[in-house]
Amino acid sequence: MIFSALIVPWIVFWLVLFFSGQETPAPAVLIVELALVSLLVWRISVAIQRYREPTKHPIFHDFARFGDPLALTSSIERELASGEARRIGDVILDGRFLIVLGLQHAVIELDEIAWVYPKSTRHSVNFVPLGTTTSLELYSYSKGFRFTSLTLTSDVALFDALRTTATRARFGFSIENEAWWSDMRVSLATRDAAIASASTKTK
Fold first, then answer.
1. What's the average model confidence in pLDDT over 6-16?
2. What is the DSSP letter of 166?
3. Among 37, 48, 94, 203, which residue's beta carbon has the most beta carbons within 10 A?
């Protein structure tokens, strides 16, 4: 739909100029259209490939470090069907994982979630306010989201669900939590460096 919305106006513009007899910037228009069509064909081919082989989807790579991706995803699908796991927007929560679907895909073990807090962002253009969006910023003990937060579409239900499932996490923004997480990241990085050094010496 996005690619169609980009391609169709260019085609209409070109046709209007063509039938009106005006001089048209045909080379530039055709180059842009060709680029958009190429992107469209590429994304369609990717979608077909993932439909034929679901394991080609990037979410399976996210699951790979936790075991057999196909077995894990099949188990979660059964949990969703039985009601053991729940879906909140683009997020799935089961007894072990937080799974983010969509373009910003990610899989995090609930025990690895370190800090979650809501964040409001005001949007404006030329000082004209356009509104405010709210998100959940999530950091993890694991390396994936230790220094850069995972931004989730905010939902009170999701925040409340994480409070009961992410038992090692701190919730809410405060100076104390920010200082704690800053110190914790240094400790985790030092620990990882020590483990890597010991592993290298062992080899």
1. 67
2. -
3. 94
H/E segment holding residue 99: strand 97-100
**How confident is the model at residue 162, as a pLDDT?**
94
User: Exposure pattern of 131-157 as b/e (b: 16+ CB <10 Å)?
Assistant: eeeebbbbbbbeebbbeebbebbbbee
Element (H, E) at 83: none
- Alpha carbon distance 124, 132 (integer Å): 9
Tokens of 55: 């394991």
Distance, CA of 41 to CA of 82 (rounded, Å): 38
133 Cβ neighbours under 8 A, 6+ residues apart: 120, 121, 123, 154
Q: Which residue type does 33 have?
A: E
The CA distance from 185 to 166, in Å, is 18
Taken as a whole, the chain contains a residue count of 203
In the Cβ-directed half-sphere of 102, how many Cα atoms lie within 13 Å? 10
Beta bridge partners of 125: 128
Q: Which tens digits make up the pLDDT trace of 99-117?
A: 998 778 899 999 999 999 9
pLDDT at 6: 62
